[in-house]
Amino acid sequence: MFEEFNLRQFISAFVVLFAVIDAPGSIPVILKLKRGGKTVHAEKAALLSFIMFLGFFYVGEAFLNLFKLDISSFAVAGSLIIFIMALEMILDIDIFHERPDMPKDATFIPIVFPLFAGAGALTTLLAIRAQFSDINIIAAILANIVVIYGVIKTAKRLNLILGNGFIYMLQKFFGIILLAISVKLFTTNITVLIEHIK
Questions:
Q1: How far apart are CA 137 and CA 5, in angstroms?
Q2: Section 157-184 average pLDDT
Q3: How many domains does the chain have?
Q4: I need a labelling partner for 101 at 20 to 30 A (CA). Which of 82, 109, 143, 188 fits?
Q5: Within a domain: 198
């Protein structure tokens, strides 16, 4: 298996996943959650993201087939959640209202899913299986997990260095990016679903 490792394939797979996961763009979301009293654990987020990616890489399609779902349906559902999160960031509103029984730990939802290991990233992961060897994709996943860990671990420090004003500006900017990603995910996959209905 290790003989199949190819540096060019690894870099290509890493760049594709890095762009879709967009861990640095999640800094404003992480800070917003922390300001709201939520906890986000870097180690837990990294581990859960790795499990999600690796699990979906090997059994993703079989898992969706178990519920008679396809990748397009999964992507449309994920795009709607990302759309709502983007609106919160851009408009400074709270759509997801707090309830007394809601956990304070926001590590898995919404950080790991749908932000890091969301529909876009998981769909991309399945798509690049045809392009690269498994070992190169797994190595690319691990490299992105390191990035995820580093981003969460240094989010507060970056806030202190960059200042609240700059982070607020980043929040708006990446809110628009998230909005665009959600619209692209939705339109691309809703078209596929409509074609299947026809």
A1: 9
A2: 80
A3: 1
A4: 82
A5: no
